Amino acid sequence: MECVLGVVGRDFAVVAADTSAVQSILVHKTDEDKVMVLDSHKLMGASGEPGDRVQFTEFIQKNLHLYQFRNNIPLSTAATANFTRGELATALRKNPYSVNILLAGFDSDVGASMYYIDYIATFHKIEKGAFGYGSYFCLSLMDKLYRPDMSVEEAVDLVDKCIKEIRLRLVVAPQNFIIKIVDKDGAREYARRADTSNSPSDAATVTA
Amino acid sequence: MSIFEYNGSAVVAMVGKNCFAIASDRRLGVQLQTIATDFQRVFKIHDKLYIGLSGLATDAQTLYQRLVFRHKLYQLREERDMKPQTFASLVSALLYEKRFGPYFCQPVIAGLGEDNEPFICTMDCIGAKELAKDFVVSGTASESLYGACESMYKPNMEPEELFETISQALLSSVDRDCLSGWGGYVLLVTPTEVQERVLKGRMD
Fold first, then answer.
1. Looking at the complex, does the CB of residue B36 fall below 8 Å from at least one CB of chain A?
2. pTM for this one?
3. Among A10, B120, B154, B170, which residue has the fewest nearby CB atoms (within 10 Å)?
């Protein structure tokens, strides 16, 4: 039931993901950050097998840093995306990672860009995308409401609409989400969305 | 569902008079869901040689990268471009290398050979070449494409007529296949120029 979604606006990109860590019927935690900040100007939203997700995204992050240390220049978003795709493709027929990735970044020459890389290393540059069961609700919303040069407020509003739809219509829906943004000023957390309306988040033994 | 039908694809190539055309659909899907409507399936190897790769998108991308690598090495060593027939043999060999763990792709190769003679061929996922003099098809819409091409094709068509024929064959075939479509991409190659066109069909 994990959802990752992303949208590219005018000189920025937004990546949002749910923050639930679930194993079978148990909710381990409700504040798991699935959008990794790869470097100063890149975000990688990932969903899939929890171990693979953390290991693979950290692997990409460390390799990115290594490149920067060795070459004194950061890797571009396109190059990072192609590197990520290459690692997934190489592992595919040996020891595959079950991780779906939305990689968004900002480069001064190209602007903001986002790449869809699924778990079998299908690679495509996109303006709007989503993974998981939530994508069945989000993609059509985005098709209708997305415009190519949205402002940050409009893009986050679109993401909020997607989150609202997921909360309402997906069975066992994740309630809490994290939204991160990347633009010329860097990659950072933009907001968290927590649904405090129905169920209590404290344990039953906490005294009132 | 078969692994060849996971992403959905349609590729066709046709021979005309001293020219050829290669076309594909533009949908990238994951089973029933459409991810993108601008996915590229036809790739350039050199100015007079193109390859369309239908089937699993990830394998099409990996295979294309390997083929470009091999062709660039060939260019460095031989100081010339590969002939289409040679390239087809290369693709066939690469695919058969993976006989017991294949790339889930069916390539369609189209090029202008010696004396600008058009060459087209297709092969299955393990490299069984099939040369043709008229047209070759592959992808989830291949059965429809066979029918459409067989009825619409005439030998020795001029470039404009060839473009019209291949476009109509592609669009009418993908309209009967739920996994391919969302427009078309047609490349028409003559000895002097290359024309790329994007078709708008039924966007569903």
1. yes
2. 0.94
3. B154
